[in-house]
Amino acid sequence: MAISRERVLEELARIEVPGGGNLVSRDLLRALHVDSGAIRFVIETEDAASARALAPVEAEAQRRLTALCGDQKVQIVMTAPAASKAPPPRAAAGAGGGRDAPPSMKIGRHPTPQAGPAPVSGVARILAIGSGKGGVGKSTLTANLAVALARQGRRVGLLDADIYGPSQPRMLGLTGQRVSGEGNMIEPLHAHGVTVMSLGLMMKEGEAVVWRGPMLMGALQQMLNQVKWGELDVLLVDLPPGTGDVQLSLCQKAQVSGAIIVSTPQDVALLDARRAIDMFDKLKTPVLGLVENMSTYICPNCGHEAHLFGHGGVAAEAAKLGLPFLGEIPLNLEVRLAGDDGTPIAAGDSPVAHSFARLAERLVAGGMA
Ligand SMILES: Nc1ncnc2c1ncn2[C@@H]1O[C@H](COP(=O)(O)OP(=O)(O)OP(=O)(O)O)[C@@H](O)[C@H]1O
């Protein structure tokens, strides 16, 4: 009989890790997927040395789970970033007791009354990149898609609207840099051919944003309208995960051409993706299509192709919903290392870079970017 997710977690909580605690209490598990056919998850470590130290733990997890389950296959992948990083600051909208004054440069104020969604001066199209669930690779996809589009000669902007955890400065190699201002206009930064604005470029590293809804709306409005975007063919907006204030504000304030939804093939991620699609429908923002991230995993040692989170689930979901399926990006350690390094993999010439290039081509060919 197939074992349940709870039973898997119970078993993994019995495996001690070097330095104390167990796989669960040390929060080392990611993307746990349990169904009747398979148990799959990622063990996320801080760096290559921790990954080596955890190799016996991975083997023990494999051994125990294989002994426990009947027909379920056990697939475990260990990942480690190039450099350890502090997690981005996160806080919930509406959280009380926090600072809700602007951090600097007067970003973060109450919104200016506006009749309806307005265009952003000089920007031909605005594409919202959303996901129902966090951690599916939305920011990674946005950064790489922006770079891939820029390499195809498009004039591309990227607005990091993941206000609670802006990760674009790190992914695009802009950590520690600041935007400058002139009058009430902000000069954005440029990286890998992309014009970039992020709240992370206005805050000290590790500084948390605790703004209430109206302050968020004001900050977003300013980042759209008080940034010298210049002439752009497309502005990609990296949204926070889920269906909250920022999504609502963006679609109410700006003329968004459409939304692209990123999901992994897991059922639970797809369920959340459906919620995101429903939200964009309600906001009357057309959903242009779905992208499957972490689609397949090619073992760098033996070349074996595994479908860690399943495969094809997003394409099937798109077909069911009558939406275009825009493409798939494999699960590949290089994607993550490149993101942590500040040079998105799409800037190079690897097979994964070609996956992003194909996605960009499809958007350009479809008049979306
Ligand atoms: N195709 C991929 N292959 C390998 N690692 C990936 C891939 N896509 C994303 N990742 C890694 O997964 C982690 C989560 O990705 P990312 O931050 O882009 O997700 P997100 O959906 O934007 O999350 P959040 O909304 O919570 O900020 C990162 O460490 C990233 O490097």
UniProtKB/TrEMBL annotation:
Keywords: ATP-binding, Hydrolase, Iron, Iron-sulfur, Metal-binding, Nucleotide-binding
MIP18 family-like domain location: 5-75
GO molecular function: 4 iron, 4 sulfur cluster binding; ATP binding; ATP hydrolysis activity; ATP-dependent FeS chaperone activity; metal ion binding
UniProt GO BP: iron-sulfur cluster assembly
InterPro entries reported for this sequence: FSCA_dom_sf, MIP18-like, Mrp-like_CS, Mrp/NBP35_ATP-bd, NUBPL-like, P-loop_NTPase, YlxH/NBP35
Chain segments carrying region Disordered: 81-119
Positions with a binding annotation for ATP: G132, K133, G134, G135, V136, G137, K138, S139
Pfam families found in the cross-reference section: FeS_assembly_P (PF01883), ParA (PF10609)
Alphabetized Gene3D superfamilies for the sequence: P-loop containing nucleotide triphosphate hydrolases
Subunit structure, as described in the record: Homodimer.
Purpose: Binds and transfers iron-sulfur (Fe-S) clusters to target apoproteins. Can hydrolyze ATP.
Protein family: In the C-terminal section; belongs to the Mrp/NBP35 ATP-binding proteins family.
Protein name per its UniProtKB record: Iron-sulfur cluster carrier protein
